[in-house]
Amino acid sequence: MVQPTAARLEVDVRGRVQGVGFRPFVHRLATSLGLRGSVRNRGAHVWVEAEGPPGALARLVEGLRGAAPAPARVDEVVAREGLPRGLGPFAVAASDPADVDGELPPDLGPCPACLAEVADPVGRRAGYAFTSCTACGPRYTTTRALPYDRTRTAWAAFPPCAACRREYDDPTDRRFHVEAQACPACGPRLAFERGAERATGAAALARAREVVDEGGVLALLGVGGWQLACLASDARAVARLRAGKARPHKPLALCARDLAHVEQVAHLPPGAADALASPSRPIVLLPARPGAVAAEVAPGLAEVGVMLPASPLHALLLEGAAAPWVLTSGNRRGEPLLVDRARAREELAAVADAFLDHDRPVVARADDSVVQLHRGRPRLLRRARGFVPRALALPVGGPDVLAVGGDLKGAVCVATRGRATLSPHLGDLTRPEVEGALREAVDHLLALTGARPEVVACDLHPDYVSSRVARDLGLPVVAVQHHHAHAAACLVEHGRTGPALALVLDGAGHGEDGTTWGGELLLCDLRAARRLGRLRPVALPGGDRAAREPWRVAVAHLVDAGLEPVVPGVDPGRAAQVRALLGSRAVSPLASSAGRLFDAVAALCGLRRETTYEGQAAVELEAACGQGDDGAYPCPVLDAGDLLELDTRPLVRAVALDLARGAPVAEVAARFHAGLAAGLVQLVLGAGADVPEAVALTGGAFANRRLLAALEDGLAAAGREALTPWELPPGDGGLSLGQAAVARARLETGGGPLGASG
Q: Which pLDDT band holds residue 102 (cuts at 50, 70, 90)?
């Protein structure tokens, strides 16, 4: 049979294929194969129509599947044959705004080629803060909707000049069809303001550097919103910044020019250099070099968070800097990152000496992401710029679902077409401004994903702000128990549907029995969960106040352990008053909270009587641990009827006895961690041999690497598989994913949207 000399293919490419230089890649590939036709954005896919010899078309499809450029991700290539139609030379065609079904890439840190171009003193982008190409630059924070075209981005207000247009139209140029194409002649511009003083362009950069070098605080509009900067070595400047943000103790992040700059202030353990230099440009928690920065940067901690420049603007600001800068979010404690220029000037005026602004809008706010290194691998503690809106695969089908998360570390999730997309970290929803940011994030995610939610999932707690928001949306509501949602999120990340065991440790969550949970052993799948065990419940004197005043919980744990309530630095009269409250469940509710146990021990060690940020006492207790093997305190498992119970009383008695004998806090803290971990392993093993081998380790307490490592090792020695979050925070930042997965699973298996929590 005579083979045809020409054939035609229509190819639908799905995945992360917009905003990543995919159309230019297709153009180059098809042209090199001698094919004719076109490539275009279609909805959130890329649509290719090509004609030519059958062998060349086959190589085109092979290349689409296996040779896509980073940071693209091809999930599916669907090719359909057709009759040749006499197509013209291969071209990039206008986008087709069909139904959205795809994924926009996250904001990408500056690539080496763009940084070199910015540093070239004779190039046309010399010193230009908004330089980018197919391999780098903002995407999520500048895009309103898909398909990804300039008209749907913040760049729409900046028509390209003739030189930029030539690069855009040139298939050989790395800016071929780059929608964020700009240069000093046509793109966004910097503006410096200090009182009546004004400067633009290079002069604005120079003045901004001078403000910081002279010990001042600078407010600058970064990739995803406003930021505050000062010298990390200037204790007075750091103290002023803290006072203006109402953030007395929570550690501040640093920005360094390059890896050598990082090593001035921190050590680089295995995996650190790769995490820092990744396109996501997260804050990476690193062992601090003592005395390298002002003690006020990370008080009470042995680590410091450092990032490399997230944009050419940050790289230019740090040119020639003798030491890294503090670079933190431009907001007040617990509030969302500021993006509005007028509000930033109003709210940051009390702390900032000067403002470095620009005229490119921030379409969607995104704070800096935070990762820690665990066994040489980065794991997320805060998921935002550089990671959002990277989707996760859902191992369960069902209708489109919107999930609104919890009230702390707020983040929303949209589940559609087999994928789950989360918003960036938003903040604490108990503040009205964050509720507004949550609603904006919902609208933006729906625009990007094209999802049409049939239900909204929320926390089981009826009084959460997020639960009220869910009820206000007018959709059927699926309420998901807090710790089940944590477990489900971990299972989804690992592609599991269960059943599995889940050890969920955090501060507090509304339990199915109406009490406060926080240290739970569950047997669960995505649809339902059954509690098998818990930490021994202990009273929280003053309710929520106990979370802010760890000494109160220390009193409760001492009394529960049969000891006198003597807490370092606490007046005996106040301790007696709190002791008198313990018998009233109205003012001292019981809670099986791992977080509050850490708080109590930190208070007994004299580390922290009151806290100013969530998890502060636990973080400082972990930091206080010695590095050697100091043994472990007893923490036995008891049979409490229908539940196993980890008895914390012997552990607390041992802590108090060692401290009374004068044992170093470093030894006490280490023995506490080891004893709690050993007890938790026994709690898991106490569930029996007929339970699943896999154990999800999740909840905010698992930001503690010492505890996590001890549990992983203990479970491995017992032949159990430990699953822990990596791509999602173990705390409430991943809660909405679990809610969405549970809601889908219940609906898929016939549970009604108003069904009881499993």
A: low
Tokens linked to 52: 């030519």
Collapsing DSSP states into helix, strand and coil, what is residue 233?
coil
Contacts of residue 563, Cβ cutoff 8 Å, sequence gap at least 6: 652, 653, 656
What's phi and psi for 265, nearest 5 deg? Answer: -120, -10
Q: Are 650 and 634 in contact (CB under 8 A)?
A: yes
Of 659, 639, 655, 637, give the one whose Cα is nearest residue 647.
637
* 494 located within any domain: no
- Predicted pLDDT of residue 41: 82
Per the domain annotation, does 97 fall within a domain?
no
Q: Is 728 helix (H, G, I), strand (E, B) or coil?
A: coil
- Chain position carrying tokens 């004068």: 662
pTM here is 0.89
Phi then psi for residue 536, to 5 deg, are -60, 125
pLDDT by residue (tens digit) across 580-615? 999 888 889 999 999 999 999 999 999 999 999 999
- Is residue 743 classed as helix, strand or coil in its secondary structure? helix
Asked if 538 and 648 count as a contact pair (C-beta separation under 8 A), the reply is: yes
Do residues 566 and 714 share a domain? yes
What is residue 137's three-state secondary structure? Answer: strand
Q: Scanning the structure block, which residue is given the tokens 């505050």?
A: 228
Distance CA 599, CA 615 (A): 8
Cβ pair 286, 254 in contact under 8 A? no
> For the chain, what is the radius of gyration of the CA atoms?
27
User: pLDDT, tens digit, for every residue of 606-629?
Assistant: 999 999 999 999 999 999 998 877
Residue 410, domain member (yes or no): yes
Distance CA 315, CA 302 (A): 27
- Give yes or no for residue 57 having a pLDDT over 70: yes
Which phi and psi (to 5°) does residue 32 adopt? -65, -25
Task: Name the DSSP letter for residue 110.
Answer: P
Same domain, 294 and 330: yes
For residue 112, count CB atoms less than 10 angstroms from its CB and return exposed for 0-12, middle for 13-18, buried for 19 or more.
exposed
Report the CATH number that the domain containing residue 209 is assigned in CATH. 3.90.870.30
Same-domain check for residues 137 and 209: yes
**What total number of domains does the chain contain?**
4
Structural domain containing residue 304: 103-371
For residues 727 and 607, give the distance between their C-alpha atoms in angstroms, rounded to a whole number: 31
Instruction: Quick: pLDDT tens for 725-744.
Output: 999 999 999 999 999 999 99
* Residues 107 and 52 occupy one common structural domain: no
Q: Of 92, 111, 137, which residue is a domain's last?
A: 92
**Helix or strand run (H / E) with residue 532:** strand 529-535
CB atoms within 10 A of CB 226: 27
Residue 319 predicted with pLDDT over 90: yes
Helix axes 572-581 and 550-560, enclosed angle (nearest 10): 70
Mean pLDDT of 443-464: 93
List the end-to-end C-alpha distance of the chain, in Å, as a whole number: 63
Cβ pair 302, 242 in contact under 8 A: no
Specify the DSSP class assigned to residue 93: P
**Three-state SS annotation for 237-284:** HHHHHHHHHCCCCCCCCEECCCHHHHCCCECCCCCHHHHHHCCCCCEE
Helical ranges in 545-664 per DSSP H: 545-548, 550-560, 572-581, 594-604, 616-623, 649-660
**75/108 same-domain check:** no
Report the candidate in 683, 564, 655, 670 with the shortest Cα–Cα distance to residue 623: 670
Q: Which of 3, 156, 30 is nearest to 92 (CA)?
A: 30
Count of CB atoms situated within 10 Å of the CB of 608 = 23
Domain-embedded: residue 283: yes
**Cα 464 to chain centroid, rounded:** 21
Q: Which of 678, 684, 699, 630 is nearest to 490 (CA)?
A: 699
CA distances from 7 to 55, 84, 87 (A): 10, 5, 11
CATH number at residue 383: 3.30.420.360
